[in-house]
Specification:
There is one protein chain. The protein is α+β, with helices and mostly antiparallel strands. It has 2 domains: about 90 residues, no CATH class; about 110 residues, Aminopeptidase (3-Layer(aba) Sandwich), CATH 3.40.630.30. The chain is about 25% helix and about 35% strand. Strands 1, 2, 3, 4, 5, 6, 7, 8, 9, 10, 11 and 12 form a 12-stranded mixed β-sheet that branches.
Length: about 210
């Protein structure tokens, strides 16, 4: 599947802004972000398994370089040189302008709202003040990107993720933004589908690990 490259760029821009990273740059038919983390120095993102992705895989890269593409994992796997490892599958998803109404916060929790790197960050705290769940959304040039939605293991299956999606949706709705994007894990995909999101494309990842 050939994913619309500008759409992929809008997702990646929101992802970068949510984490305080440099904005993606067009390179060879895809994008590159200079991440600069110890465990991820750089990430390349492509919309298909075509010449641009193949050329990228043929070049020499530093360890902890990531390559992501809107293709099935098996397609990316076939292009991987020795030393590259396939990560868990993920899915690029979008949602309509009108989603289901929010749900109440379960008893025993409070919500904390902050702004980090321009993203609206919502955290659910338990009775001890520890973070039980969190998520963030970036609004940029008509696109909302939901990112880093996670619930701690001890607090799962209590509706916290659903609650957070509702509070983040309220931020998006108030801004009048129609395009919503996120990348879901295999475990998170069913939740988003129940909330009205749909899969646009698979989103596969490979990482170059240091030689042992």
């Amino acid at each position: 599947m050939l994913l619309d490259l500008p759409l992929l760029g809008r997702w990646l821009t929101g992802w970068s802004l949510a984490r305080g990273l440099p904005l993606p740059q067009l390179v060879g038919g895809g994008f590159v972000v200079e991440v600069g983390w110890p465990a991820q120095v750089r990430r390349y993102v492509f919309g298909e398994a075509a010449e641009a992705l193949q050329a990228c895989m043929a070049r020499r890269h530093a360890p902890y370089t990531y390559v992501k593409a809107a293709v099935e994992p098996a397609q990316l796997q076939r292009l991987l040189p020795p030393g590259w490892h396939l990560d868990q599958p993920r899915y690029l998803m979008s949602a309509p302008a009108v989603l289901a109404p929010s749900v109440p916060l379960p008893p025993g929790y409070v919500v904390q709202v902050a702004t980090e790197h321009g993203a609206a960050v919502h955290r659910v705290l338990d009775a001890t003040g520890q973070v039980a769940a969190s998520g963030r959304v970036v609004l940029h040039q008509g696109t909302a990107v939901v990112d880093r939605l996670e619930t701690q293991p001890a607090h799962r299956r209590q509706g916290l993720a659903t609650y957070l999606m509702g509070t983040l949706e309220a931020v998006v709705a108030e801004a009048g933004i129609a395009e919503r994007l996120l990348v879901a894990t295999e475990a998170g995909c069913p939740l988003y589908k129940r909330l009205g999101w749909r899969v646009l494309a698979p989103y596969s990842t490979a990482v170059l690990l240091p030689a042992s």
